[in-house]
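Thread: Newbie trying to understand structure tokens

Hi all, I'm a second-year student working on a class project, and my supervisor (Dr. K.) asked me to get a predicted structure for one chain before our next meeting. I've only ever worked with sequences, so writing a 3D structure as a token string is new to me. If someone could post the tokens and maybe explain what I'm looking at, I'd be very grateful. Here's the chain:
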Amino acid sequence: MLLKIVIYFFGLKCYIFNEKYLQKREKKKINYKEAPYSKFHKTLFFCAVLGQIACGFALGIAGTAVTEGKADLGLSTFWVGLLGAGTLIGLAGSLVVGNLADKIGRSKLVLLDMAFFTVFSIAQFFTSSVPVIMALRILIGLCIAIDYTVGSTIVSEWFDPETAPSYLSKFIIYWTFGYVLSFFTGLVMSNLHTDYHIIFASSAIPGAIAAIARITLGIAEAPSWMASVGRVEEANKLVAEKLGPEYKIVAEEKKEEEKVSVAELFSPKYRRNTLVGGMFYACQVFPYFGVGIFLPILIGQLNMGDANTSSIIYDVFCMAGAFAGTWLCARMSRRSFLTSTFFGAAIALVIMIIGQNISIVITVIAFAAFALIMSIAVVMEWPYPPELFDDRVRGTGVGIVVAFSRIGAALGTFLLPILMDSIGGTGTLIVCAAVLVLGGVVCQLFAPETSASYLKKVAEKEAAVN
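---
Reply by user tm_fold:
Sure, no problem. This is what the structure looks like when written as tokens:
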């Protein structure tokens, strides 16, 4: 009898020990967002930045194509601005895209958008109808909206929160490369008197490269989104497959029937972040695209010497700004970065206005400074919007912020040729400077600080006080 009791308690002890061991082992599993940078992360990032190159190229080539096709298409100033802004108008579709991504997931949209982008780009070669070209430009813009909205979201949801902003800020280098490449391509094509159909359709090349890479290599769904819709087990299997069995999804509890709506983004919890995100983005891209896309028209009215030389200077400093912005993004707080670039670019435009009547050297230096600062500034368009929202509403939140921005970009691009005709180059620069000052004031007063390093310091101070 005594022997049976000993055996029973020994077996019970072994069982308890085994259960504790298994629980301890389970606890040792690490949040997948803490996984080190791996081949999987490299592949995802590679597929994402190929799309950014294609997007930058498509937006930049529009100015050259419209300028070359103006006579053949019989375009008025109104239609020059509208066609130039067509892609940016399509980008306003990011509002719908973001909400769709929160409902059906990220990977399907990212996987297919560059294929459609390529088809729409090629279709421009086969039409001379202005309304059809306009419709195709809007559709291309909608594809770009997917990359802007969902591409940045899926990267932020797979990468470590502390390092994700660094990788997202690098998007601008690849986007600017595509943008600058379009200027040099356009310059060569213009000098060769290339037909405007070919110029429009040339964006199919980077689009096809991105589409092939994504379809071949694949795009994995974001585990945090899967968990947010109740697919936790499936998310853990995906994490184990991509990163290793020691990693898992750490999901926040959510209420049943919890749905994402656009109206929720304007509720007391989110409205400040939504409005700040939209305003900062719109005020940045209004002058950036307005000046960039119709650069030859602006240079022609200002005291800046040879148009080709001035365009090359602008492109070189844009590229330099992308690298400088990526470096600064990791070393400055979000608020300081935003306000300093807004006010710095506005000052550069004011100096350009004054310099026209003094010296071509001053004008060109200020123009180069404007290109540099604006290219630094737009780095924040990738890491900041996803940081403003939590996992559940991030897709919709980023979508609505990008939609705000496209209104600003489309207005800047559409209005620039009209403003140049009505109030001249100086008046146009004053309008751009005023928009930049507005953006700086809004960020100074309302922009939340979201950088991981800053939030970590705040948490540490609070813990020390408690």
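A couple of things are worth pointing out once you decode it. The chain has one domain: 30-454. The first helix runs from residue 2 to 27. Feel free to ask follow-ups in this thread.
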